[in-house]
Fold each of these.
Amino acid sequence: MSDTTGASPTEPSAPYVPSHAELFLAFVKITVMGFGGTLPWTRRMFVEEKRWMTAEEFNDVYALCQFLPGPNIVNLTAVFGSRMRGATGALAAWAGFLVLPFALMVTVGVLYAQYGDVDALRRVLIGIAAAAAGLLIATAAKMVVPLFTAGIGPAPFVVLGVAAAVGVMRWPLLWVLAVLVPVSIALAWWVRR
C-alpha cells in the first residue's frame, strides 16, 4: 500500500501549531492552576504535557522575556502566542492568560477588603505562599537541567557570576547586566561557532 500523504518516512513531521482556541484555553487552564505564580504550570504544560516547546526553547524564550519591559510571564504569553499564530495568537494567549484572573482578583480584592482580618484566612494565605515557593524552586531546578545536559559550558558560570555580583557583593543589577550580557552573548557565540 502506498503512502498517500506524500511525505517520505524519513522526513520529520511538522511541529504541531495550536489553534487560537487551544491557545486561549491553555492559558486559561494555566491561570486557574497557577496560584502563587504561573511559570511552573506554563513550563509543565508547554514542555512536558503538550510538547509545544523543548526545554531549551522554553528557556531561550523565557530569557528573552526577562529583558522585555513588563511581567516576564505576560511577555512569555505574548511571545509564545505570536510564535504560534502571529498577532492574533498573541492576543488569544494574552486574553486567556489575563481576562479570568483580572475578574477573579477584582472579586477577591473586594472580599479581602471585607474579610481580610479573619485569622483563618491569614493562615490559608501563608500555606499558599509556601506551596508557591516550592513550585518556583522545583521549576528553577527543571530549567537548569538543559544548561548541564550538553556539558558544562559558560552558562552556569554566568549564572553564578550574576548571583555572586548581585546577591553577595550587592552590586547594582543594571551595572552587572551591562557587563555580563555582552560577555554572555560573546561566550554563547564562541561556544556555538
Amino acid sequence: MAEGDSPTVARRRVRLAIREAREANNLTQLQVAEQMEWSLSKVIRIESGEVSISVNDLRPLLAFVGIKNRAEVNALLADARIARTRQRKAWYQRPEFREHMSDALRRLIEYEAEASAFRSYSIYYPPGPFQIPAYASALTGAWTHEIAPASLETVVEARRLRRETILGRLGSLHVAMVLDQSVFERTIGGPVVLAEQLRELHDLGNRGLINIRMLPFDLDSPIANNASFDLISIAGESGGEVMYRENGLTDEIVEDAASTARHRERFEQLWHVANEEVDTIGFIKGRIEYLETKITERRSRT
C-alpha cells in the first residue's frame, strides 16, 4: 500500500489481486462462493468493483485463492481498510444521481477523479466531460419521451459535475482524443450549439490542455472501424488501464488486461494515422468560421 492511496486505487488493487489469484489457481467464482458460503452475486460484485470487501471476509478469501505471503496479505488487508472508506459523500454516490446512472458510469466517474491519463476514441460525439452544457442538453433532449423532466434535469446536472471535475484537473491530467471527422460535422443542437462546442475544443487544444487529432473521411485505414471507447490510466496504479464503452443501450467497464492492452494498441494506431494536432486545430477553426457564416446568413434572412 502506498501512502496517500485513494479508496479507488486501494479497492481496485484488492479485487484485481483476488481475481488474478483465483484464475491462476483455476478456481471459478462459483467455487469461491461455495467455499466462502456467499452468494455467487457477491463474488461477482467484489471482483467487478461494485462493492468493497471487509477485512474479515478478505482474510479467509486470500488463503483460499492461494495468497499466503505475509507481506502481501498485510498489504492487501491495509488496502481493504482504505477501500472501505469509499467516498460516500461524493456527488455521484448521492441517491438522486445513483438512480439515473449505471454502475459502469459511476465507476468511470470515480476512476476519472483519480486518473493520470484519459484517452478517448469517438466516432459520434466529443467525450462526455468535454461536452458543453448546451451540447449535452441537446443530446439528452433526444430522450425526453423516455425521461421525465425532473429526471432529465438530474442527468444534465450529473454531466455538468463530471465535466467540472475533469476540467479542474487539466494540466495534471493528460488528455488525448482521436475524433472522427463526423464529430465536427454533425450539428447536434444546431449550428449555434455546434459552433460553441467547437470553440471549446479549439480553445482547450490551442492552449495545450488537451491533445486532439481527427480521423478524416478520406482516410483509407481499416482500423478506423473500431467502436468508440475511453481508456483511463489511474494514478499510482500498475494494474493496467480501465476501459469504458457504450453502445447506446448498455455500457460497461472492462478491466481485463489483455482487452485493455489491445484497445490501447488500437488507440495508438489511430493516433498515428490521424491528422496532426496542428492540422486538427486548423480544421476546427475552419468549421467554426463556416458555421458562423451560416448563422449570420440565417439571421439576415429573418
Amino acid sequence: MEEIVTIDGPTSSGKNSVGFLLAQKLGYQYIDTGMIYRAGCLKMIKQNVSPDNLEKILEIYRNLDVRFETNDHWKMFLDGEDVTDLLHTPEISKLVPVVSAIPEVREIMRGIQKRLGANGKIVMGGRDIGSEIYPNAKYKFFLTASTEIRAQRRYKQLVAKDPLIKYEEVLKDMEQRDQQDITREASPLRVPKDAITIDNSEMSIEQTVEEILKYINA
C-alpha cells in the first residue's frame, strides 16, 4: 500500500482539486470516486430510473464503463463520452446521497475502486477510501473545512452555470448532505484510523497539497 494515497472528506473540502494536483506532483493517477457515483446517477437520469428501482440501479452500477484521464486537466469518461462537465447538476447532487447510501451499490463500488487502484501509483479521493477501501494505505488524509466555507466554494461552482441559484440554498443542501453522509448505515463518513486531518478553511489548493507533501516526504 506504499503507492496509494487516500483523501477523504465531506463535500467541497477540496478533495478533487487537491487530489488532482497532488497526483500530478507525485506522478500518480487521480481517481475521484465521488464522480463514479455521479456517473451512475447521470445514467439513472438519462434512463429515467426511479431511486426506488433497486434492481435497475444495481444493473447500472454493475455495468458502469468509466475511465479517467489526468493529463493537463482531470476528465472523466462514461461509455466513452467525456461527461466531466455534466456531473455537478443540482439534480445529480440531490440523487447522489440517496444512491450512495444503498449498501448493495457501495459493495459494487468497492469492487470498482479496488480494480481501479490495483496497479498502485494512485491518489484516490472519496468518503470511505481510507476507512473501508484501503484501510492499510500508508498515506491517509482527511480534508475538512467549515460548512460555510465549503458552501461558498460549491456556490462559486454552481452560480457560473445557474446565475439564479442562492448561497442559502447551497448551504442548506450541504448541511443536509453532511448529515446524510455521517448518519448513513453503509460506510458513513468518518476520519479513517491513523489519517492526518487537515482543515483547509484558510488554505489554498496549493497550500493544502504542500501540507500533504510534508507528511509524505517526511
Amino acid sequence: MFSDTPNLRLAAIDIGSNAARLLICYVLEMKNGSPEFIKLNLVRVPLRLGFDVFENGYISPKKENDIIDTLQAYKYLMKVHNVHHFVACATSAMRDAINSAEILEKVKKSTGIDIKVISGKEEAASIFENHIEKYLDKEHSYLYIDVGGGSTELTLFDNNELLFEESFNVGTVRMLKNKVHDQEWQRLKEFVKKSTNNHKKLVGIGSGGNINKISSLSKLKEGKPLSGDVLKDYYDTLCKISVEERMIKYNLREDRADVMLPALQIYNSVMRWANINEIYVPKFGLADGLIRNLYSQVVLQAANN
C-alpha cells in the first residue's frame, strides 16, 4: 500500500550483464507538486552474468548462487533503509539465458524478490523516464545513448517529443567475448545514420557506468558536455595499455577497466554516425528511471484507493 508519510523511500534493483545495482531513494515532495529523488544509497556488485550467458548461453550454478546472495544482501539493505516499495528488473544477459526462468524461480523462492525481465525497448523506455531533455535547450535534438554490458539503447527526442527508442545487442561484455554479430553492428550503424540525418543539430546524452567514469576522470564541470575529441583520446590511450595498466593509471576496478574500451568504441561510433560532437553525462541510468516509474505507479495506486 502507498505510505502517506512525508519520507517515502523507494528502491530499484537493476540486474545487468556486467553488474547488479541497488538504488535507494528518498522522495521529497516539492511545493510545486513535483517530486525530487534524493539518493540514499547506491550499491554495485559485479556479477558479470554476461560472461556466462554470451559465451555458453546459460547462467552457471556459481553465478546463480551469486545472484541469490547479492539479492539477499540487497533485501537486508532495503529493510535497514525502511524502503516502502521496490522493483527488480533484469536486462540483456537474463533475456538471453536459456535457464533464466529457472533462475528467477529459485531467486524468488530464496529471497522473496520477484525479478521482471524487461525487453530492450522497455529498458529504453525506463531510461527515458529520467526526462533529462527538459533541462536542455530546444535548439537541438538529443540522442540518449545508454551502453550496457549486453545491449545499447538509443532514444531520440526533439522539442520534448519522443521520436524513437530502440535496443541493439551490442554491449561491452558481448564485445569482450566476441559475441556481437556483424549484422547487429551493421544494423546499429544503418539505424543511427538513417534515423538521425533529418533532425536539428544533435547533442548526445550518455548513460552507463563507463561514460560516468570517463566524465569523472576528465574532471568535467557539472552541466558541461564531454567533447567527442575527449572520448577519442581516451579510446586511443586505452588501446595502447593493458587492463592491469588501466587499473593502475586510472585507479579502476578490473570489472571497469576491461569494459571501458569497448564502451568507448560504441559511444565514439554512434556519435560519429550521428554527427554528434558533444555529449552530456547527467549520471542517470536505468535504476533511476525504474525509481521514477515506480513512484508514478505508487501515486496512481494511492489515488485509486
